[in-house]
Amino acid sequence: MAAVGCEAKEGTSADLLKTPVLSSEAVSAIQRDEDSGIPLQTPWTFWLDKAIPGTTTEEYKNNLQKIYTVNTVQTFWAVFNNIPNAGKMQVRYSYHLMRDNRYPLWEDKLNQKGGTWRLKCHKSDTERVWQEVVLAAIGEQFASDIAQDDEICGVTVSIREKEDLIQIWNINADLISKATVLSKVHSLVPNVNFLGEFYKSHKSHHAYGRR
């Protein structure tokens, strides 16, 4: 299995992203069992990327590595347990888990009207918060914390220099006044003290349409 970012050097990010996160043996084992198990309400796709300043949206999209699309609880755990955990990833890398096969792109037509709840956390809490948020997403636990016409469509963990960033994606930024997503997160990890938390629509990013 490839270790994400273990020996990365400046200028090698594109090559690193082309290195499979899951070994071929792990993929084969997952594929043998993916028709059995408890089905998820929708498929979810794991992605990996590295923040590279100055790239265009298309360059960012091309640098994304699709890890695997999971359809059952068992397949989710098979992938989750066979990729490096978030707490051990190198700075500037991100994992995304997106509903269906949508890209983790603000500008994607399926995402562009939405935004993310953003929570900054201590590095010592990253692994735990990421796991709880991911499980809540695939288990549809946020369904009662958003407006009827809204949907949680992804979750992201981004590794940064000082503190890490957890993001929860929704599809309609106009409906967040009816949401209690942050309260749900606090109930999932009641002993975690976040360093900051807020909502940001995709179109309000200064880098929307460019990177």
Report on the architecture of this protein.
The chain is α+β, with helices and mostly antiparallel strands. It has helices at residues 13-17, 24-33, 57-63, 73-80, 123-138, 181-188, and strands at 39-50, 65-72, 93-99, 115-121, 152-158, 164-170, 196-201. Strands 2-1-3-5-6-4-7 form a seven-stranded antiparallel sheet, sandwiched between helices. A hairpin with a 5-residue loop joins β5 and β6 (164-170). α2 packs antiparallel against α4.
Biggest pleated sheet? 7 strands, antiparallel
Distance N to C terminus: 30 Å
**What fraction, in percent, of the residue positions are helical?**
25-40%
Report the C-alpha radius of gyration, rounded. Answer: 16 Å
Low-confidence stretches: 1-16
Strand order of the largest sheet: 2-1-3-5-6-4-7
Task: Indicate the multimeric state.
Answer: single chain
Helices and strands, in order, run as HHEHEHEEHEEHE
Secondary-structure-based class equals: alpha+beta
Mean pLDDT: 89
